[in-house]
Amino acid sequence: MTNVVIIGGGPGGYEAALVAAHLGGNVTIVEEAGVGGSAVLTDVVPSKGLIAVADVMTRIRKATKLGLVPADASRTSLLDGVRVDAVAMNERLLKLAAQQSADIQARLNEEGIRTIRGKGRLDGTEHVIAITPDGVEERLSADITLVATGTRPRDLADARPDGERILNWKQMYNLAEMPRKLIVVGSGVTGAEFASAYHALRCEVVLVSSRRMVLPSQDSDAARVIQDVFEARGMEILSQARAIAARRTEDGVIVTLEDGREVEGSHVLMAVGSIPNTEDLGLEEAGIELTPSGHIQVDGVSRTSARGVYAAGDVTGVYPLASVAAMQGRNAMYHSLGDAVAPLNPRHISANVFTSPEIATVGVTQDQLDSDLVRGRAIMMQLHSNARAKMQDLNHGFVKVFCSPSGVIIGGVVVAPGASELIHSLALAVRRRLTVDHMAQAFTVYPSLSGTVAEAARRLHGHGGDEGISY
After folding, report:
1. Which residue of 14, 76, 422, 469 has the fewest CB atoms within a 10 Å radius of its CB?
2. pLDDT at 268 over 50
3. What is the per-residue DSSP string for 402-444?
4. What percent of the chain is predicted at pLDDT more than 70?
5. What CA–CA distance (Å, rounded) separates 252 from 347?
6. Whole-angstrom Cα distance, residue 23 to residue 37?
7. Could you tell me the CA-to-CA distances from 166 to 171, 175, 246, 341 in Å, in that order?
8. Cα separation, 31 vs 40, whole angstroms
């Protein structure tokens, strides 16, 4: 029987373990924090749980426009009767994360997968040393090894998190009170999501962005919508401003910007990137190549430069997405255990930013079309003309579809509540090389937001890539 040892029990690790067990491997996971890793325990699950709470508040805020008014005439809004209990909310989020971890552990147990609570490191390419919290070491024989140790929040030298006022995203669920004024440093995905959520929860938010516009890595039209929404809702955005330090005061925090300005608040969230967990793992000694950023170099099926050693997840720097980590882990086991597998294709990856509204993307980008790296046509349709959007008072958002000169759907962007669900049809179209006519001729429910996806496809019917871009 093939011995498979997996260092790290996040999505990349536990999904790999399930595939390896299914294919007949003798599987052991070495995980330091708990099955599910940071994705389940301190990142994706609790943060999206937080966003779900914020979405409820957003719907309540819209209720008056829909004809729902307080029964008490002295109140002007339904929100007047709602208060966020930070302790109860955060306790629920952490309980939700712990339950998800327990469910995953139960599944692993059912499949006969052994889990060791501790830290793992390579001893060459054929053994892994597992070290438990009490210092006991166990040497595991490994025919196949998968490293899926993830990343951790990056700190600024003069803004070290203390877990009370100066926080990284893992520490946001320990708050005993709602911030009076939350300063969010960093306008990438993490920063924008937390800023969106806490502002919806009626917290004053200042977003410090080093770029001209928030979400610089996203489709520029989508990022512009989010910035406009943030500002329309009253969020303060400090664009082209770089934070260099944060210090505590008696009852708050002060963030210092590079230009000398100071921003006062009750709490600050430092969302300034992440660092791969590749130290003290014996990687270089085993002949595993790292990128200049410290990530593990892998190919399309997650192989490292060392025979029999694979890597998956954020530690590879491919895409910081739980879904990608899971796919990398599965692909590694399919490949190593002799099953059929196709290399990971970046153009098939769908991603989502859980702001309000959400941004979902798949396939080629607008920048690639604009720079002639890819030939094709794009059409963008605003949601405000969609009947379902009118019913829900959705005034911001759009559907953008890209097709090749021959009409094959090659990508798309959706900005809408629930964009993470709407993108699936476009992801399937990209993966199976469906045409705009395939999409246009499929029935959609009326009224539905998905109807706009089909309408965009209908408008692309018969158009080639040399006719430019339609907005």
Report:
1. 76
2. yes
3. EE-TTSBEEEEEEEETTHHHHHHHHHHHHHHT-BHHHHHHS--
4. 98
5. 44
6. 23
7. 9, 11, 7, 44
8. 13
| Angstrom distance (rounded) from CA 287 to CA 285 | 5
Q: Is 106 exposed, middle or buried (0-12, 13-18, 19+ CB in 10 A)?
A: exposed
Tokens 């309540």, located at residue:
60
Whose structure tokens read 């109140």? 75
358-390, pLDDT tens digit by residue?
999 999 999 999 999 999 999 999 999 999 999
Residue written as tokens 């339904």?
A: 78
Which pairs from 452-455 meet CB under 8 Å and 24+ separation? 452/381, 452/383, 452/386, 452/399, 453/399, 453/401, 453/412, 453/414, 453/422, 453/425, 453/426, 455/381
**Sign of the four-CA dihedral 322, 324, 327, 329:** negative
Q: Is residue 47 over pLDDT 60?
A: yes
- Phi then psi for residue 25, to 5 deg, are -80, 155
The single-letter DSSP state of residue 295 is P
Question: pLDDT band for position 471 (50/70/90)?
Answer: very low
CA distance 192 to 184: 8
- Bridge partners of 336, per DSSP, are none
